[in-house]
Each structure stands twice: as C-alpha cells, then as structure tokens.
Amino acid sequence: MIEIGKWTLIVGERINPTGRKKLTEELREGKLDTVIADARAQAEAGAEIIDVNIGAPGVDESSLLPRAARAVYEETGLPVCVDSSDVEALKVALAVLPGEDTLVNSVTGDEEMMKVLLPTVAESGAFVVGLTKDRSGIPRTVEERMAVGRRIIEAAERYGIGRERILLDFLTLPAATDSEAALAALACIDKASREWGVGTILGASNVSFGMPERRVINAAFLAMAISRGLTAALVNPLEEGVVQAILAADMLVGRDPMGRRFLVDYRRRKARGSS
User: Fold this and answer.
1) Angle made by CA atoms 237, 241, 243, in degrees to the nearest 5
2) Could you say which residues of the chain have pLDDT below 70?
3) Torsion angle, CA of 110/162/71/262, rounded to 10 degrees?
4) What pLDDT, on a 0 to 100 scale, did the predictor assign at position 30?
5) Which residue pairs, CB below 8 angstroms and at least 24 apart, start in 68-71?
6) How confident is the model at residue 273, as a pLDDT?
C-alpha cells in the first residue's frame, strides 16, 4: 500500500507517448509491448509507483487506459498512477485497480472536474494528485498556487478524501525563462508540508527546460525540494543518477536512517554491474 511521507516515493514517468513515435504507434494499434517493457525496466531501476499515460492522438483512452494500467500492475506488482485529462478514462481505469494501490493524476482546481472525478476517487479509495492550476493556467505567485491547492484539498475533504490521500503538484516552470520559478515551487512545497500536513509531488524536468546539463539541474532541484518536504518525485528512473540523487537526499534529511535504502540500491546496482 502507498505510504506518503515515510520517504520520497519514486514515481516512474517513462510510460508517456510524448515525443515517442514507436510507443504512440503501438498504442494506436492497441499494443502494450513497450508499455509492459517500460514498466518492468522502471521497477528494476527503483521505481515504487508506475505512472501510466497513454494520451496521444488516435488513442481511445477509455478503452486502452484500463487495459494498460491493469497490465502494468500485474506485471510489476507496484502501485499504478493513472495519468489522463480524460475523466471517463480515469473512471474506467479506477474500476480495474485496487484503490489503496492507485494514484489518480490528476485533478485540477476546476470546479467542474472536481465535481465529476472526486466522488469516484473517494469511492475507490485511491490517492489524488492535485495540479495547482485551473482553466486560467498555472498561477505565477506562491499565494495564487497555494489558493488553488487549498481549493483542491477542501473539495477532496468534502467527498471524504483525507489529506493523507492527497498529493499536491505545484507545477514548476522553466528557470531559464523565470528566475523565480524554482523558488516559488519550493516555497509552496514547504508551506504545504508545514502548514497543511499534505503530501507533495514534483516533476523536476520542467525546471531545466532550455538549458544544457539538464540532469544535473534536475538532480539539484530534487534535492532542494526534498529538503523542503517533498514526498514524491515523478522522474525517469532509467536516467543515470536520478534515483541515487533522491535516495541520497532522503538520507541527508533523515528519512533514511543509516542510509539503509541508499545502500540497498548501491548493492543492487553493483550486482547488476552498474556504477
């Protein structure tokens, strides 16, 4: 079962057709070969939850998302994060997954979406990923993003979804175009953790968009976010160094006493012949 807050959960983001022509073609044909291979590889690399996003032109998500999500769950035995903007597809996927082992990515601050989706999430017992944006876009200030986050929490609680089942995503913008982008996201993570006692999730890759050495920037940002209270990271665990950076940060902030998880990962990689 998913446990938020014990350590930084590693959510594998690899199953996503964006920029992946072969995967997109397979999904249009209803094939899941690459989906299953990606799920297996991410689990072996250290992912603890697998994000499943099959949204692409020509893909019937209502039909394919439940198949893909269930296949990933059965292949890996890991919790699944069903990721779609299609509310009906999310509903159907929830029906074939165990709620206590499922994340729903994502619910925005739009009242219409919350009214349609949150009752189904509540009934299933799943966890909610709340994106702190609405139809007007991603707020630029800390105060505005926190306001959307509060709106999501309050709506979820009205439907019986407790804060222990909520992860807020404060949606980092590229630091290359907004020098305050990283600081704003970090401030929101810190405030949500300290003031609301709610979990947070972060996809770090946006912060480095447009810059060289993106892996270095992403790793530094993840470590900073973990020090502020981040509880889940949406990353590609196959990318060199990303899992180690998360585990090292957890050790340094006291979430991994004596570095036990770090050492387990180190030994696993040595046994597989990686450095």
Assistant:
1) 45
2) 274-275
3) 110
4) 96
5) 68/15, 68/32, 68/35, 69/93, 69/96, 69/97, 70/96, 70/97, 71/32, 71/35, 71/36, 71/39
6) 77
pLDDT of residue 204: 86
Cα-based torsion angle of the residue sequence 54, 57, 62, 63 in order, rounded to the nearest 10 degrees: -80
At residue 241, what is the residue type?
G
Tokens for 234, please give them. 């949406």
Paired tokens of 142:
């800390």
Which tokens in the block code for residue 186?
């970090």
Give the domain ranges of the chain.
7-97
pLDDT of residue 1: 78
56 with 48: CB under 8 angstroms? Answer: no
User: Tokens 């480095």 appear where?
Assistant: 208
Distance CA 185, CA 182 (A): 5
Joined tokens for residue 21:
């022509």
Element (H, E) at 225: helix 214-227
Confidence at residue 274, expressed as pLDDT on a 0 to 100 scale: 54
Buried b / exposed e over 124-135, threshold 16 CB at 10 Å, is bebbbbbbbbbe
Partner residues linked to 203 by β-bridges: 234
For the chain, helix (H) and strand (E) counts, in that order, are 10, 8
Closest among 30, 31, 33, 36 to 52, alpha carbons compared: 36
